């Protein structure tokens, strides 16, 4: 049965995971996302669905626990915030190389270093360009509401298993900490051992007499083989780019100016569009939902229509680079950002549009 | 209808939970709601604030820089947020410890001496409900029945026996809130 | 008499366990890894748990362990095997899970993962090959390298003022309440091989009985890394390694 609750984004992640039949969560506390593990522990799903929840000794350990669980064909996940995500990059590279499905949530805080515990979007590069060593990509989903925090847990797992690739939910302190109404999905059972063996014949479930052994590894020392493996990964990423792009547009039909923003910034920009239009400025908003694959084509098309594009990010300007690549010089592209944990105000965004494109 | 509220005060005054109860109440009335707290170490003993939005429509930004209503429970909050009330908006403050009172003439200002009342009537634990009552009197957007429902769903069931004392505190707040400066609600175009 | 006349079931006095694959091992002649692989394979066969066993391979010389044992495997990042094993075991409580790790993997880069897996008392077996050197990367100093022992990153010998002391990891792990069995064995003589096999068997039986973490350290030789002949290396191991790392049970409850 569907249930409407008032939840924090972090709590919604935990509730959705239990209901979706996730097998294991392995994490390490860090602000502003600790409510995820706290909620899971308070719900003790091991008594109901059989989900394993474990507090690891570090983010390094948690992502490697995720590797182990994913190698068994189980639905496993972890969550962290920026400094912890840096530690997880090693594991993510191995998971991508070994082609394992898993879900990771980053509730981003400002950096670099220990930075701040307040929201930021400064982990975009790390999230969409790989992050660890080697040529790989994560599937990156950017929720902009508590409802999407809940909805993207199943979606991330579906995509992760479809492509045998880690999927990242790139959130931030604002979405993690705020409460909104959220409709939770009904409970569904976890996969049985038989289902896992059928659905994921590659998983380490114990070598049965009728099949050869399963080995989960990212190692291949023969260069020809390693190149073939890399080509296979790249083909997978191209397939994602061709079929998995998701985005949303607001008031773009007649827009003269286009805002591009994801997650929290997109919420601020929705308000900015309202204010701008009240002031007679035809502004639209494109909100990428998948950051990888990026809505390159949609942006390219809108670039022919508008007089200027402003990206709004809680960073020094990271996504703006991908926007510029998509726009290919068809229209001016500028960036407006706040950082250090400051969320830009809708008014500031409107002022930035005026300043950038409607001088004098 | 859209009501954008900031509640600010000391950590421990129940600022966040008051916001939560308003958000729950809004939800009980079938409205869209958002609750965005300040979070982190500043919550302990320092200042805490929360933005609550209750609306008939989808809520765009949950973080705002101007508000329909500001509920301010210490001096720092009055100093910081008075200027962020929309012209024609409402400011409710607790006079306890306030040296520099709000002075704007283009907003309605109400005073509720909830701290003093809480001590006098031995209602320290429901201090924030006295303030909630003041808000409900000034802006009758959320109703008692919904607030009680909201309280019920936000409080763990072991605390449900406290519901009557919360209701009493709300009534007390409605009773003791006093106007300081009142402007007409439709004085300017910015009002919602 | 032809070969076919000899190869008959009634003439069979010894057979390689089918759990060990036919792949030619990449280990140097004289290396202990091959023997330990064989012992683990034999124990898995003896206990009839081939279909239920999942191995976690390390980074180091045993990185290709998965080529040699006919079971399901996961290859971990350097040092992280106990973290993988933790999740595999927790998600498959009825399967047998073991890690196979060298000294660099277990006692340097993976110290935290090792200690915390043992401290949680994860129901796993840890096979720990301690040869006091980094074999695969070409003979660099390990956390377990003896004082005065030469390695490519301490060419004049390990000096504790600069390099710290050799780490007695098993002693440390034996202190943790999560471990039920910590033992130090070797495989350099037939007698020691038999004892080591007994230890590995006990470790897997402990897992079946859900007693906690079992750690079987095998003090090993690395004649290539030590720049000795296999015979010399065994002798040197007896004379030096066993001083620092004496054989026997450190904990058995």
TrEMBL record, chain A:
A molecular function GO annotation: oxidoreductase activity
InterPro entries attached to this UniProt entry: 2-oxoacid_oxidoreductase, PFOR_II, Pyrv_Fd/Flavodoxin_OxRdtase_N, THDP-binding, Transketo_C/PFOR_II
Gene3D superfamilies associated with the record: 3.40.50.920, 3.40.50.970
Pyruvate flavodoxin/ferredoxin oxidoreductase pyrimidine binding domain residues: 15-242
CDD domains in alphabetical order: TPP_PYR_PFOR_IOR-alpha_like
Domain called Pyruvate:ferredoxin oxidoreductase core: residue spans: 255-348
Coiled coil: 216-243
Keywords: Coiled coil, Oxidoreductase
Name of the protein in its database record: 2-oxoglutarate ferredoxin oxidoreductase subunit alpha
Automatic annotation (TrEMBL), chain B:
SUPFAM superfamilies: Pyruvate-ferredoxin oxidoreductase, PFOR, domain III
UniProt keyword list: Oxidoreductase
Top-level taxon in the UniProt lineage: Bacteria
Keyword hit for Isomerase: no
Entry keyword annotation includes Oxidoreductase: yes
Residues in the signal sequence: none
InterPro entries reported in the protein's UniProt record: 2-oxoglutarate_synth_KorC (IPR052554), Pyrv/ketoisovalerate_OxRed_cat (IPR019752), Pyrv_flavodox_OxRed_cen (IPR002869)
Name of protein: 2-oxoglutarate ferredoxin oxidoreductase subunit gamma
Matches recorded under PANTHER family: 2-OXOGLUTARATE SYNTHASE SUBUNIT KORC
Family annotation (Pfam families): POR (PF01558)
Residue ranges annotated for the Pyruvate/ketoisovalerate oxidoreductase catalytic domain, each copy included: 11-175
Species annotation: Breznakibacter xylanolyticus
UniProt GO molecular function: oxidoreductase activity, acting on the aldehyde or oxo group of donors
TrEMBL record, chain C:
GO molecular function ontology, one term from the record: oxidoreductase activity, acting on the aldehyde or oxo group of donors, iron-sulfur protein as acceptor
Domain Thiamine pyrophosphate enzyme TPP-binding positions: 74-218
UniProt KW Cell inner membrane keyword: no
Gene Ontology BP terms: cellular respiration; small molecule metabolic process
Keyword Oxidoreductase assigned: yes
Keyword terms: Oxidoreductase
Name under which the protein is recorded: 2-oxoglutarate ferredoxin oxidoreductase subunit beta
Lineage: Bacteria, Pseudomonadati, Bacteroidota, Bacteroidia, Marinilabiliales
């Amino acid at each position: 049965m569907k249930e409407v609750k008032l939840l924090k984004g972090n709590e919604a992640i935990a509730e959705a995971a239990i209901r979706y039949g996730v097998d294991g969560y392995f994490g390490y506390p860090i602000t502003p996302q600790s409510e995820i593990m706290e909620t899971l522990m308070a719900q003790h799903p091991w008594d109901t669905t059989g989900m394993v929840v474990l507090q690891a000794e570090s983010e390094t350990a948690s992502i490697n626990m995720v590797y182990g669980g994913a190698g068994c064909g189980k639905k496993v996940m972890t969550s962290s915030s920026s400094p912890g995500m840096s530690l997880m990059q090693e594991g993510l590279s191995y998971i991508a190389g070994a082609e394992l499905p898993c879900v990771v949530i980053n509730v981003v805080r400002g950096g670099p270093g220990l930075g701040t515990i307040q929201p930021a979007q400064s982990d975009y590069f790390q999230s969409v360009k790989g992050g660890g060593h080697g040529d790989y990509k994560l599937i990156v989903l950017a929720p902009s509401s508590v409802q999407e925090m809940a909805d993207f847990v199943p979606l991330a797992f579906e995509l992760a298993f479809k492509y045998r690739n880690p999927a990242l939910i790139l959130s931030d302190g604002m979405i993690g900490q705020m409460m909104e109404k959220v409709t939770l999905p009904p409970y569904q059972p976890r996969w049985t051992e038989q289902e896992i063996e059928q659905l994921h014949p590659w998983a380490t479930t114990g070598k049965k007499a009728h099949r050869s052994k399963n080995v989960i590894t990212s190692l291949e020392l023969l260069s020809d083989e390693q190149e073939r493996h890399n080509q296979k990964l790249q083909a997978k990423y191209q397939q994602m780019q061709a079929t998995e792009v998701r985005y949303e547009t607001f008031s773009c039909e007649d827009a003269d100016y286009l805002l591009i923003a994801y997650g929290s910034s997109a919420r601020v920009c929705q308000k900015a569009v309202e204010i701008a239009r009240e002031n007679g400025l035809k502004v639209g908003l494109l909100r990428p939902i998948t950051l990888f694959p990026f809505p390159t084509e949609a942006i390219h098309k809108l670039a022919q229509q508008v007089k200027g594009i402003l990206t709004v990010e809680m960073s020094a300007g990271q996504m703006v680079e991908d926007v510029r690549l998509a726009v290919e010089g068809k229209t001016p592209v500028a960036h407006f950002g706040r950082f250090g944990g400051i969320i830009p105000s809708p008014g500031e965004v409107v002022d930035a549009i005026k300043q950038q494109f409607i001088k004098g | 209808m859209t009501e954008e509220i900031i509640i600010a005060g000391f950590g421990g005054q129940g600022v966040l939970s008051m916001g939560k109860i308003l958000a729950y109440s809004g939800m009980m009335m079938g409205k869209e709601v958002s609750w965005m707290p300040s979070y982190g170490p500043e919550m302990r003993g320092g200042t805490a604030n929360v933005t609550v939005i209750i609306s008939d429509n989808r809520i765009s930004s949950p973080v705002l820089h101007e508000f329909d209503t500001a509920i301010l429970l210490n001096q720092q909050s009055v100093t910081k947020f008075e200027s962020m009330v929309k012209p024609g908006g409402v400011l409710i403050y607790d006079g306890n410890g306030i040296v520099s009172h709000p002075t704007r003439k283009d907003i309605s200002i109400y005073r509720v001496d909830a701290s003093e009342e809480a001590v006098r009537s031995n209602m320290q634990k429901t201090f924030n409900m006295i303030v909630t009552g003041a808000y409900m009197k000034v802006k009758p957007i959320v109703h008692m029945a919904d607030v009680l429902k909201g309280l019920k769903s936000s409080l763990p069931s072991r605390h449900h026996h406290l519901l009557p004392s919360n209701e009493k505190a709300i009534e007390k707040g409605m009773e003791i809130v006093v106007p300081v400066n009142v402007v007409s609600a439709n004085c300017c175009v910015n009002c919602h | 008499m032809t070969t076919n006349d000899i190869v008959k079931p009634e003439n069979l006095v010894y057979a390689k366990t089918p759990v060990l694959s036919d792949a030619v091992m990449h280990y140097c002649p004289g290396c202990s890894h091959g023997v330990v692989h064989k012992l683990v394979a034999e124990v898995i066969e003896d206990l009839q748990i081939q279909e239920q066993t999942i191995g976690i391979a390390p980074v180091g010389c045993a990185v290709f362990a998965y080529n040699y044992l006919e079971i399901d495997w996961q290859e971990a990042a350097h040092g992280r095997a106990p973290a993988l094993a933790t999740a595999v075991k927790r998600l498959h409580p009825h399967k047998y899970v073991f890690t196979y790790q060298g000294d660099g993997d277990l006692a340097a880069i993976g110290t935290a993962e090792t200690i915390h897996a043992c401290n949680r008392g994860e129901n796993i077996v840890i096979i720990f090959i301690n040869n006091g050197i980094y074999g695969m990367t070409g003979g660099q100093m390990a956390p377990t390298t003896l004082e005065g022992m030469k390695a490519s990153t301490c060419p004049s010998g390990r000096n504790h003022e600069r390099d710290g002391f050799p780490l007695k990891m098993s002693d440390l792990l034996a202190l943790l309440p999560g471990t039920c069995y910590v033992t130090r064995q070797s495989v350099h003589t037939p007698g020691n091989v038999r004892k080591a096999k007994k230890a590995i068997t006990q470790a897997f039986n402990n897992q079946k009985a859900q007693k906690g973490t079992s750690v079987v350290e095998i003090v090993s030789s690395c004649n290539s890394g030590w720049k000795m002949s296999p015979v010399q290396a065994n002798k040197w191991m007896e004379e030096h390694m066993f001083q620092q790392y004496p054989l026997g049970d450190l904990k058995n409850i």
